[in-house]
Specification:
The complex is a heterodimer of chains A (359) and B (361). Chain A has 359 residues and is an alpha+beta fold. Chain A has helices spanning 42-50, 92-101, 109-122, 138-150, 168-185, 196-202, 220-225, 230-235, and strands at 4-13, 16-26, 31-35, 57-62, 65-66, 77-80, 156-160, 189-193, 205-210, 213-218, 242-249, 252-255, 261-263, 274-279, 284-286, 292-301, 305-312, 315-322, 332-337, 343-345. Chain A folds into 2 domains: 4-235, 3-Layer(aba) Sandwich (Rossmann fold), CATH 3.40.50; 242-345, Nucleic acid-binding proteins (OB fold (Dihydrolipoamide Acetyltransferase, E2P), Beta Barrel). In chain A, α2 runs parallel beside α4. Classes of the chains: A alpha+beta (359), B alpha+beta (361).
């Protein structure tokens, strides 16, 4: 397929700058996710790549060639939207055949048949081919939409929140299907979402967008383990990271308003006397011999894991543990804080402070 | 607070059941969640408890008092909806105080009660604002405050978090539960979101097709679902349900995958399965463990990073993908073969014909 590059793209709508100097490169066959809250500029970025919006500055390149002047139809892109735009009176087969029968392509019918059968198999639609799309469930319709996009083997797939309208169970299973399809087909895909779970679970790389700017680009591991700002730290991970005001003196970290004092050996030069400490919930680890004490305020069993709200002094920390648990509300609990994964942020700039531990 | 009792309560529209007869006792101070997909009858059940919907049969008791035919206002129950019904022209304070003023409470008492609930919900800074100026979460807090201020004998909540985005929903979920613990208010809470039900409920009533499927604690519906519907519906992802054949004391999922249930299951399976030996084994993602010498095997279909762990999706036979909660740092590329074992304590069995769990007792 194709690699896609954005070079310093800026887009304005009257007084509003929707995109500010956006640059990234999606590699051939990569699954690239744009993640951000509503209004961050995700969909505008997608529309600029598709040619549906013209950027005010910067360039869009496909395979290292500038495509700024190409019309959307000439960019050879396939779109999957949140709202499935299928022809309700046509069968699934005819919906899938539609892009191939376009006068621009004029694919022979026997070739169309082979392509549709192949696509239907991948998306578990074979038994539905003769059904009218109006008779399908939401999940089936979205699978047909995806099928219609992949049937013609475009250069790039653009997916704009394709799972948002589906219920949780369907979303889960389609997420797995889309990932499997993308990895086995090797199709260059840009996937837009506001859902951090979709970004973490599906992406090769994620670009986090906020207020028209890219805050961080990296693999899911990078973004989870080394969030560049407090915004990214809070956006990624469920339940959210604990962000705690803290201070330090010689060799000890103090979490404000709590009895938590962490003996700490490391290069501290870059850390100001007071800062924000980020602790992922799985790094607050209950242990009968734990260093710190607290009280279980609330228990939220989710099945595969349980969230404990632990009060220590005036601070409440979230902790996640695997499976269902035996703790009771109001019980005393001891816990450790896993040192390896602590995050340090500057209070005013809210940026990450890089800290190396002494080994 | 009050207990709520439903005796053979049902709702019919013509010949069609919206809710088949329900027997349910909600204890004083308990948080009970009515959970199910849309159209399962959970909201109709809630509305019958409130009096907004009449029953077609059966009786409802509030603290032993027969209330089946009483008007909603005579039942001393507060309702919180998904869509915050606040008066747009009133400030948050006026909205909260309104139900008390309407009941003719004197001014000092109103102020005191509003202050208490404002303190509890920590919304003092919002009091002078009108609803139009508030965020979705803050509007829902004000709506909650208005329901709380009356100190009713029970709360009924219909998807109160449904309209909020994920981050807020998580926070409000914890807030409502904390509030419940502080107030010990009997609460009936309707949701289609099984995560909310698990996180909040003392007990969960799982409904489907107008019928109660199971009533149990989160641990009961999670580990011991009574049928395939509950097994699939509860959990994210749902329970692994793998088709196999029980033959010579072992469950065969494929030519290469064989699981031998402990002795305690052997007779039960012999007695409880159809003659063909067809069986569905059910286990949660954390009951499976990747192990190079494991008895079971399959091909990696997809792998999802969740942050604290990785969910591995493994194709074990032509029809079944098994979800395995695995270590986040170990990577298994798509298409590779993995082996795994199951924790025998956590494996359940279902009859594929009846779709019911096979009981060990």
């Amino acid at each position: 397929m194709t690699n896609v590059t954005l070079q310093n793209v800026t887009k304005r709508f009257k007084d509003l700058t929707a995109l500010k100097d956006i640059s990234f490169a999606i590699e051939d066959a990569e699954f690239f996710v744009l993640l951000g809250p509503t209004g961050a500029g995700k969909t505008t970025t997608l529309r600029v790549i598709a040619g549906l919006e013209k950027q005010d500055e910067g360039h869009v390149l496909f395979d290292n060639e500038v495509v700024d002047a190409l019309m959307p139809a000439d960019r050879d892109i396939a779109f999957v939207f949140q709202q499935y735009s299928l022809y309700p009176t046509m069968t699934v087969y005819d919906n899938l055949a539609f892009p191939l029968r376009s006068p621009m392509r004029k694919t022979p019918e026997d070739k169309i048949k082979a392509r549709i059968e192949d696509t239907a198999k991948k998306l578990h639609l074979s038994h539905l081919l003769q059904r009218k799309t109006a008779k399908l469930s939401g999940g089936e319709m979205q699978r047909v939409s995806i099928g219609r996009a992949i049937v013609r083997e475009p250069r790039v797939f653009l997916m704009d929140e394709p799972l948002s309208n589906l219920d949780a169970k369907l979303r889960e299973s389609l997420r797995v299907e889309i990932q499997h399809l993308q990895r086995t087909q090797g199709s260059t895909t840009l996937f837009v979402t506001h859902d951090q779970v979709e970004a973490l679970t599906m992406a090769d790389r994620i670009a986090v967008l906020n207020e028209g700017k890219i805050v961080q680009t990296g693999t899911p591991d990078d973004i989870y383990d080394r969030p560049a700002t407090m915004f990214v730290a809070g956006l990624i991970g469920s339940p959210s990271i604990n962000l705690l005001n803290a201070s330090r003196d010689n060799g000890t970290l103090h979490i404000d308003n709590s009895p938590i004092h962490l003996p700490w050996e490391m290069h501290m030069e870059k850390v100001p006397p007071s800062f924000v400490l980020g602790v992922r919930p799985e790094d607050v680890a209950p242990n009968s011999d734990g260093e710190f004490g607290g009280e279980v305020m609330l228990i939220e069993p989710l099945g595969v894991e349980t969230i404990l709200h632990i009060k220590s002094g005036d601070q409440t920390l979230l902790s996640t543990v695997s499976g269902m648990t035996h703790w009771k509300m109001g019980e005393a609990i001891r816990f450790n804080i896993i040192r390896e994964h602590l995050h340090f942020f500057e209070r005013s700039s809210r940026n990450r402070i890089a800290v190396k531990r002494n080994e | 607070m009050a207990n709520i009792e439903l005796k053979q309560v049902e709702k019919k529209f013509g010949d069609v059941y919206a809710v088949k007869p329900v027997d349910l006792t909600i204890n004083s101070g308990e948080f009970v969640v009515l959970l199910g997909p849309s159209g399962c009858g959970k909201t109709t059940t809630l509305r019958m408890i409130s009096g907004l919907e009449s029953v077609s049969g059966g009786k409802i008791f509030l603290d032993g008092r027969h209330v089946t035919w009483l008007a909603p206002s005579e039942r001393d129950i507060a309702f919180v909806f998904q869509f915050f019904a606040l008066y747009p022209h009133m400030t948050a304070y006026e909205n909260i105080a309104f139900p008390l003023q309407a009941e003719g409470e004197d001014k000092a008492a109103v102020t005191k009660r509003v202050d208490d609930v404002v303190e509890l919900l920590q919304i003092k800074h919002l009091l002078e604002m009108r609803p139009g100026k508030l965020s979705g979460g803050d509007r829902q807090r004000v709506a909650l405050a208005r329901a709380l201020v009356r100190r009713p004998s029970a709360f009924l909540m219909d998807e109160p978090l449904g309209a909020l985005d994920a981050d807020f929903r998580e926070r409000m979920r914890a807030e409502i539960k904390q509030l419940h613990i502080d107030q010990e208010a009997t609460t009936v809470y309707v949701t289609h979101d099984q995560i909310e039900a698990m996180a909040m409920g003392d007990r969960i009533v799982v409904m489907s097709d107008a019928e109660v499927q199971q009533v149990g604690t989160p641990a009961e519906v999670y580990y011991d679902p009574v049928n395939l519907f509950v097994a699939r519906f509860i959990g994210s992802p749902g329970m692994n349900l793998t088709h196999g054949h029980f033959r010579d004391g072992a469950v065969n999922f494929s030519a290469e995958s064989k699981y031998v249930p402990p002795d305690s299951w052997q007779n039960v399976l012999n007695a409880g399965l159809p003659d063909t030996g067809e069986v569905i084994a059910g286990f949660r993602p954390e009951a499976a463990e990747i192990n190079d010498n494991g008895q079971l095997t399959g091909e990696v279909y997809a792998s999802e990073l969740y942050g604290a762990y990785t969910m591995l999706h493994v194709l074990v036979n032509e029809e079944d993908i098994v979800h395995i909660r695995s270590d986040r740092l170990v990577r298994h590329p798509i298409g590779t073969t993995v082996r795994f074992d199951l924790d025998p304590e956590m494996v359940r069995f279902f009859n594929p014909t009846t779709e019911l769990a096979i009981s060990q007792r």
